[in-house]
Amino acid sequence: MSNVLFWISLFCLALGSGRVWGEELRGPLGEDARSAPRNWVSGEKNGSVHCLGNGGLCVYGQGPNILQIFGPGYSTTTIGGLTLAGEEATSVSRRVPGAAIWEHRVQRNGELVAVITDFVDSERPCFLRRVQSAVPLTFVFRPEAGLRVTTGGDELGQGSAKGSLLVETPIGRPCVPFGNYPIPFAFFHEFSWQDAVAGSYDAAKREASFVFGPGEGTLFVTGGPGLEACLSNMEAVRGTDYGAMLSRTRAWWADFTAKGRNFERELPAEVPERARLVQVLDDTAVQIKAQQSSEGGVLAGYPYHLGYVRDQYGTYRGLAALGHREMCREILDFYFRVFDAYGAIHNAQAFGIPGLFHVHENDEVEITGYITLQAFDYLNRTGDTDFLKRIFPMLDWAWTVQQRHLVSGMLPFNGDETYVAGGVLPRSALNDGSSEATMLFVDSGNLLTDFAAKEGLWDQARVEKARAVLEQTRSTFRGNFWQNERLITNNPERCADPAVLPRTRHGVCESCVTVQWTLRTLAGRYVCADCLNKPTLPRVEPKVYTLQSVSLTPLYFHSPLFRREELRPQVDAILKAYGESGKLPSRPDGEVSVGYDYGLVLYALTELDDPRARSLYDKTLSLADDTGAWAEYYREHKPFSTRCRPWESAINVEALLHWISKTYGWK
């Protein structure tokens, strides 16, 4: 929009005519921001969250508010966010289809007062906010505690900018709000603003204010793993035309979207809620890509700035269904580069911080099975044998380390399983036998052994030894985990011999619930050194649990350990309880559902050709929030905890597409 037209519109608004302003002020995106509208109200709590990112710098937002800014890399910690100040406001927010480029149309008292355009540049670690405003609009930045803030001067090379603000995150800052995982270098972020933006910093309050308008102005936020990198990035973006950065970013996202499936063109016309589904599929692909680091791995969400193996397995499955095979390979490549450098994969690995790992209890089981299963699923989809041979040393390691934990044909639980972290399965049961971890061991081990034999990667003696271990574990599986015609989650008999319990382990202290080294008490509980002198935690009586999530995994993994029909009674029981109570808790006596339970139930019903799958299709799709994402947990079908989750979103969209595929014969 021309400057003349802008000021004519502004003059009309001053005369009380918001109509002309509303028609003329379209923002840089114009009619291209055609995605479904997302309504936002100032002061909204626990609402939907969206993500902007290019693999280097990442931003999480909620409406026009910014919750977090971090990177590069993706495992650095947030420096803070931007909050709209002043009187109550609302916003209609839209995203450019196929791109993490957002437009927020802000209203006060029913009048359109500003149009905000947000994106992260495709070539530089820079977040850009362009605001066209009829009235002064203030956003407040409050840096996280312990950060150093410096107001800009000539030394920062402001150039055409009106001002600068430098934020230093000192060396040793933890990369996540739990666990002692310090970042081994200082990193920096610079704020810079130009045109109709006034910035100031109040050292006493430790907050910066950015006042946009009246008029058009731009805020830049760049980052770098060192001061020189940060300043150089800012100089580069300030020297580039804003329109050129927006254009190249749109082109970058268009290239990404073109690599996936075109569901608008491909999906059958009779698919229920087709338009909504097409929107959600695009939402999911974009929000996962925005959360994918330049190293290839994908974030687990805004509290979790790391690459978690389990989360990335479900994310991988969803990406494959969405047609993004290139991202599937990038995740496996990420694992292999870490393994090649450090000889192991842990519960979670850092992005952009070499050698930093989030270690949980029993890190050598379950996630190792997921890695192997993911690799062979990739092989089955692509036929890329050469790639599997290249990463085979990692798969060989994953097979080898699991065997030391086999006791009576059972493996224990990994300590960061979603249902453990959410309290659905108590942490005191972690050393019990895990049906899920053991099933993954058998299923992935068979695939690995057959591949190693066929490609000559193991000698005959090694192959025969592996097959003997697998056969023994398979032959005892039902005795260990199949009780009363149902799959149980845990078997306490694995801990019948106290020698099975490790003396120490790294994970969550059962007393103060912090992540650190813990010691086993005489009551068999694990507490940190500080909690040894606190009141003793009582011994927990062994108990068998049957979690919905676990009972559905054989159908999700296509495990050959079971026939489909023998799993039907468990699925029937879940649907019966759902029909009677209207709830879908992960544990029959609980209130909480992990966010992927809906997708697992839908996937299972689809595998069983059960007509009730349609109702779960409707329910699963309805739970996608107004950014098209699913949450980490649900209570009575209401989201809580982390929003914008790649793992839950990916599993649920795969299940939706799986149902469509089987129902309509669509591929």
The structural class is alpha+beta
- Name of the top-level CATH class of the domain at 34-256: Mainly Beta
CATH superfamily grouping of the domain at 34-256: putative glycoside hydrolase family protein from bacillus halodurans
CATH architectural label of the domain at 34-256: Distorted Sandwich
Taking the alpha carbons of the first and last residues, their distance comes to: 44 Å
User: What integer value in Å does the Rg equal?
Assistant: 26 Å
Shape: globular
Main β-sheet, in a few words?
11 strands, antiparallel
Total helical segments: 19
Strand content: 15-25%
CATH topology-level name of the domain at 34-256? Beta-galactosidase, Chain A, domain 5
Estimate the mean pLDDT confidence.
91
- Helix fraction by DSSP (H/I, runs of at least 4): 25-40%
How would you describe this structure to a colleague?
This protein has 667 residues and is of the alpha+beta class. Among the domains are: 34-256, Beta-galactosidase, Chain A, domain 5 (Distorted Sandwich); 544-667, no CATH class. 37% of the residues lie in helices and 21% in strands. It has 19 helices and 27 strands. The strands form seven sheets. Strands 1, 5, 6, 7, 8, 9, 10, 11, 12, 13 and 14 form an eleven-stranded antiparallel β-sheet that branches. Strands 2-3-4 form a three-stranded antiparallel β-sheet. It is globular and about 75 Å long.
